[in-house]
Structure formats: C-alpha cells, structure tokens
Amino acid sequence: MGQGQTGGTAARRLALQLVEGVWQDRLTLAEMEAHPHFAGAPAEVRARAGRLARATLRQAGRADAAMKPWLKRSPKPAVRALLRLATVELMSDGAAAHGVVNAAVTLAREEHAPSAPMVNAVLRRVAEDGREAWEAAHPQRLPNWLRGRLSGAYGNARVARMEAVFEGTSPLDITPRLADPALAEALRGTPLPTGSIRLERAGQVSALPGYASGDWWVQDAAAALPARVLAAKPGERVLDLCAAPGGKTLQLAAEGAEVTALDVSESRLERLRDNLTRTGLRAEVVVADALEWKPPAPFDAILLDGPCTATGTIRRHPDLPFVKDAADIRSMVDLQSAMIDRAADMLVSGGRLVFCTCSLLPEEGEGQLEGLLQRRDDLHPDPEAVARLPGLEEAWIAGPGALRLTPDMWPERGGLDGFFIAALRKA
Ligand SMILES: C[S@@+](CC[C@H](N)C(=O)[O-])C[C@H]1O[C@@H](n2cnc3c(N)ncnc32)[C@H](O)[C@@H]1O
C-alpha cells in the first residue's frame, strides 16, 4: 500500500472516530480535536479527517437515502456511521470509488469483521447507482428536539431552507479594525453592506495579508452586528459582559471606547488576550462570574452576548444538533435572564444595553426581550440604535429595537449565522 493510501485510511479512521463520538457519545468535534489522540496525528491527516467528518455530519441524511435501496436490514450504529462516511465521500468528494470502498472495507475488518462483505457490497452499489437517490433526497433533517421548536417559530418551509444551508460550508467573514476600502481587495474578498468582508475561499487564515499586523479578525457577519448596534463612542466606559474569545471586545476597543472585557472562562480569555495583542487594541480583562462581579462604577454602555444553545451557528458547527438537546435550553434561558438583570443594574441612567444570543430559539431571544420588558420598568427598547445599523434590512427587524437573523437570509451572498439582537436604554 502506497503512502497516499495509508494516509487516506488513517484520515478516514480518524474521521470515523469523530462522527461516532458525536452521534454515539455526544462529544463535540472541538473536544475531540483538542484530545492528544487527534491532536497528535499529522496535520494533513487531521485536516482531511476534520473535513470528511464535517461533510458526513452535514449530509448523513442524504447518505442514508443513497444506500437505503441496498440495505437488507438496519446496520448497527457503528457500521452505519462507516457506511455514511464512505457514501458522503463517494458522492461529494470526487474521490476515486475503489479507494473509498477499499478503505471502508479495511476499517470494517478492523472492528466489525462480519459486516465487511456487506459494507463492500453496499458501497459498490452506491458508487454505481446511488447518485440519483442522493440528489433527490431532502437535505438532512434536524433532530426532532430542534426541528419541532424551529418549525413552531419559523414554519416548515423556512426550516427546510435552513436545513439546505446547513448542508453546505460557510464563507469566512472578517471584521476590519479600521474602515479601509483597500483591505477587501488585498484579501480578494467582497465588502458586505454591514461592514464585514467575505472571503469565499480563505485557505490558511494566518497566512492572509493583514493577519499578523492585526488589521482584522475572523467574525461571522451576523456576530459583528451587536457591537455595531451598541455603537460605542471614543472614551465611553463600556462593559463586554460575556467577552471571550473577544470578537466583540475588539470591535468596541477599535471604536476608542474604554472597554472592560469580563468572562468566567480563564482559558477563553487567554484567546481574548492573544487577540488584543495581535491587533494592538486595549481592554481591561476581568476573570469573574458576571452574576457576582461588582463594578467600581456604573457603565455608559453594556454588551451582553450571553451563553446560549448556539443553534444559530450550526452551519459552522454541524455536530451541535447531535450533542445538545432540549435539556440544555431551560438552564440557558434562566442564566440569560439573570445576566440581563445584572447588566441593567450596572448601567448609568440613560445608558445603553445590547443583549444578543447566537441562538435560533425564540426562548433565548424574542422571549427574553418580552420577559425583561414585563419584569423591569427601567429598560426600554431603543429602535433608533437599530435604525442606525449600516446595511440594515427590513426583513431583519423583529419589533421595536430588535433584530432576528436566520441562516437562510442573504442566500445570494452565502448566508449568515442566526442571531437575536435587542437594543435597550435605561431610564
Ligand atoms: C457567546 S460566548 C461569548 C462570545 C464573545 N462575546 C465573542 O464575541 O467572542 C458566551 C460566553 O459567556 C461566558 N460565560 C458563561 N457563563 C458566564 C458567567 N456566569 N459569567 C461570565 N461569563 C460567562 C462563556 O465563558 C462564553 O465565553
């Protein structure tokens, strides 16, 4: 067996472990990729395994449709994972069919020897005749815990459009430190109306022009909106209450505000500090629990990007629907409401609060806004703050002072992450 084939089987073995870890053990890709077992593999094996695992998590539904006609009975989960992985590679990777099938049979022999002949037979049929069923299949459906909630909030047709988005990969968005028309050209990117720059094919991020000099940072176009709605002014005292790894802190600091960046996670704040160093921007960094920390003085403005189910980021994190479930929602919602109250108490009279979550669930967005307006009579929606947003689209507005972004928006530009953003002012 030549070098390429050996490497190919190693990458597929690692990819199989990743998808099984997600589907069976509910481990995140980030957790597994940080583990020495994965991190110790050669870089090209890791890169290929990561790509293959993500493609499989995104398109397993299509793979099931393509192999169904040739499966006599339902295979056990580990064998199904292997069949899905190989089918996705056969149908979407352009890899030579014999190499994919041989590698899958090798992997089947290692762990599930009695299934190897079946794996061989099914994959040969898929390679020859699976294309039509693959292409005709509905994009992979979200798990029921999430699909039901999203259908209730957005309707079945819109959820189907989101599922189509979740099958594909996402472009790379960057936020410039300064508005510089030459930057998009230098990066061969497209300026977006909201101020971000979008790159269709990025390659290695750290090799791009302006990375080392800190002229920009990676941040989804939707994730860049909350800080723009807050519109920090030079010299203002601004608190970024859940700050790490710091994309929004960098935006606030780039506006010249005196920023305090607080987060409970020391390790995530390390990344924030690295980002500040690279960009040459300044912020006071505080490691603390937002619910317990007492500020020396109230703030002019606060950005609260609360912890949430992160369901708005599925197109970048295809493991997420499988590792989370409905049990995660209640505790997140309670924590967010407590943080909103804490933030409101830390504001000067007349101060601005922007609350946001990268969630698609109304409980973590629209419901939070409704709840806080019922609970508190000192916070009021600030529609003017939203109206000033560059590139604002009518379809994003979700009531006074509120924006709702979903991944099916901007289809002609390549989509964007899901977010809920509310702008408020303290009486
Ligand atoms: C959505 S992330 C923040 C992303 C960040 N704003 C950015 O733009 O890079 C939520 C953050 O909340 C932090 N967090 C969770 N519970 C917290 C608490 N009780 N106090 C402070 N931070 C907390 C997490 O560590 C996490 O970094």
TrEMBL record:
Active-site residues, record numbering mapped to chain: C358
Keywords from the UniProt entry: Methyltransferase, RNA-binding, S-adenosyl-L-methionine, Transferase
Any GO BP: regulation of DNA-templated transcription
GO molecular function, one term: RNA binding
Pfam family, one: Methyltr_RsmB-F
PROSITE patterns on file: SAM_MT_RSMB_NOP
Residue ranges of domain SAM-dependent MTase RsmB/NOP-type in the record: 145-427
CDD domains per record: AdoMet_MTases (cd02440)
Binding site for S-adenosyl-L-methionine: C242, A243, A244, P245, G246, G247, K248, D263, D289, D305
Signal sequence interval, chain numbering: none
Family: Belongs to the class I-like SAM-binding methyltransferase superfamily. RsmB/NOP family.
Protein name listed in UniProt: 16S rRNA (Cytosine967-C5)-methyltransferase
